[in-house]
Write a sequence for this structure.
């Protein structure tokens, strides 16, 4: 085996991008080409990779975004797409790539990631500590409301994607307590690849709602708007009388509804670079998770 080459931020290199996508597909069952072709792979997403004979064989990706914590903005890096081809494992490649990322982004407030079950002992070696989140939910009793002004969008249609991206780029953080800003590219990945048939625009509230139904449970993944909206009003329009429970996959700000909280083991690992105090209880928004 010849000496490996280190490359980063190579999205415009067709050959390397194709190899990267191939490794991501074989490792996670996902691919990034559609995201790239729609223009949502920007400089905020930077792969750090080792290449052997023109093929990407190990990677650690950087996602640049802003965390909103108690109404203050903090600069953060979220690590994602950590993968190594099976033929190159147990050679310390992921460790070397992590070292490069940590060296390049030593000035941010937070570096964090969501680990998978098989590598929970890997990230503490770099100073990451596990952090427990909370899951918000509520019992729901439907109050009838007119369903007028609810428009279903299609994440496979360019016009609808452009509409969503424009709204997302100007959105306020979903929560002043704990939320994200500047993460619209991550959101668009979900709109393209995960929730493309779960997008609803509420004309009166001027907000986009991402939600899925599971029997009598409604999973609310995000509410995207340029101004504050009232959760109670949204639920009256998107939840019918068969829904008995709402699960929120982000940290809500709305105090007009009673919410239950339960510990949520998301395998979140955080490296606090500047000593910023995290809230005692919070939920990272699902649609900003790399």
């Amino acid at each position: 085996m010849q000496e490996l080459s280190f490359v980063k931020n190579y999205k415009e290199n067709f050959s390397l991008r194709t190899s990267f996508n191939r490794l991501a597909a074989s490792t996670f069952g996902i691919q990034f080409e559609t995201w790239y072709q729609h223009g949502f792979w920007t400089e905020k997403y930077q792969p750090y990779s080792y290449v052997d004979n023109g093929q990407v064989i190990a990677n650690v990706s950087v996602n640049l975004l802003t965390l909103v914590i108690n109404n203050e903005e903090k600069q953060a890096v979220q690590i994602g797409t950590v993968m190594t081809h099976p033929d190159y494992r147990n050679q310390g490649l992921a460790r070397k790539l992590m070292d490069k990322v940590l060296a390049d982004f030593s000035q941010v407030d937070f570096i964090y990631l969501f680990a998978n079950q098989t590598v929970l002992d890997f990230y503490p070696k770099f100073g990451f500590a596990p952090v427990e989140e909370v899951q918000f939910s509520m019992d729901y009793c439907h109050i009838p409301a007119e369903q007028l002004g609810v428009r279903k969008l299609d994440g496979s249609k360019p016009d609808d994607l452009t509409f969503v991206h424009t709204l997302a780029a100007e959105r306020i953080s979903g929560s002043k307590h704990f939320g994200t800003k500047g993460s619209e590219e991550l959101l668009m990945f979900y709109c393209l690849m995960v929730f493309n048939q779960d997008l609803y625009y509420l004309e009166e509230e001027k907000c986009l709602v991402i939600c899925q139904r599971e029997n009598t449970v409604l999973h609310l993944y995000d509410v995207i708007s340029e101004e504050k909206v009232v959760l109670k009003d949204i639920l009256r329009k998107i939840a019918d009388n068969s829904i008995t429970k709402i699960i929120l996959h982000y940290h809500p700000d709305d105090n007009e509804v009673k919410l239950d909280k339960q510990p949520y083991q998301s395998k979140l690992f955080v490296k606090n670079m500047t000593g910023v105090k995290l809230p005692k209880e919070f939920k990272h928004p699902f649609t900003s998770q790399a």
The CA atoms of residues 114 and 268 lie 5 Å apart. The helical segments are 14-28, 33-37, 93-104, 158-169, 184-193, 231-238.
